[in-house]
TrEMBL record:
Keywords: Membrane, Transmembrane, Transmembrane helix. The chain crosses the membrane at residues 56-78, 98-123, 165-188, 208-230. This is CASP-like protein. It comes from Triticum aestivum (Wheat).
Length: 233
């Protein structure tokens, strides 16, 4: 009887899978950002300092004007008293008249200088308006230039004059008294070679009105205005 030999061989392991494909990722550097647009830089030192300097100069002129007006009013009031005491052509009267005329000239010069400062301030604001488009805003110019015509400016102006209202009322009363004395003097009959009683009375009334008017300016109106400007500015 024939024998059949069966040989069982072990199964071979499956072949390993092929290695995956290698993927190479290259990171490229990002392009540099574009340069910022060119910007025009305008350096104007006067744009910051000039208006402040003009404001200080304007305040100095205002206080100087008050001082000159006080001297002028005081000289006029003293001239009335000196004329009554020592006569028309006396040395004190001539000296006080010279002081009064000099104060008037200085006051005119102060007014002209103040208007010149106002013109310079307007020119500075115009330069600011021309340069403002470079910085992209013109609101500062509009606020500083057109703010003067707003109702707040009028209210501020009357607030400055409020402390001197009583002085103005008293001064107006003395002005009317001086006008009344002048009318009495003009309406009185003139006596050749002498002064009539009506002219004398009218002259006294006129001098009292002039003295009171300038004394009110010296001791009531100007001090009130100076204090008001000092508090507000």
């Amino acid at each position: 009887m024939a024998l059949a030999v069966v040989v069982v061989l072990p199964s071979l392991p499956p072949p390993p899978p092929p290695p995956p494909e290698q993927i190479v990722v290259a990171v490229l550097p990002s392009p540099p950002p574009p340069p910022p647009p060119a910007r025009v830089v305008v350096v104007v030192p006067a744009r910051v300092r000039l208006p402040g300097v003009l404001r200080v100069a304007a305040l100095a002129l205002i206080y100087l004007g008050f001082a000159v007006a006080w001297v002028m009013a005081a000289a006029t009031a003293a001239e009335v008293v000196a004329r009554r005491a020592w006569g028309e052509g006396s040395a004190p009267v001539l000296f006080l008249q010279a002081v009064m005329y000099g104060a008037v000239k200085v006051c005119v010069c102060i007014i002209l200088a103040f208007f010149a400062l106002v013109v310079l301030l307007l020119c500075a604001q115009c330069v600011t308006y021309v340069i403002a488009p470079v910085s992209g805003s013109t609101s500062g110019f509009k606020k500083s230039t057109f703010g003067a015509i707003r109702p707040e400016f009028t209210a501020h102006f009357f607030r400055l004059l409020r402390p001197a209202v009583l002085g103005f009322v008293v001064d107006l009363a003395f002005v009317l008294l001086a006008v009344a004395g002048l009318l009495v003097e003009m309406m009185s009959p003139h006596v050749k070679g002498s002064i009539s009683q009506g002219e004398m009375v009218g002259s006294v009334i006129e001098d009292v009105g002039i003295f009171g008017m300038h004394a009110t300016v010296c001791f009531l109106i100007i001090p009130a205005l100076v204090l008001s400007v000092w508090r507000e500015c």
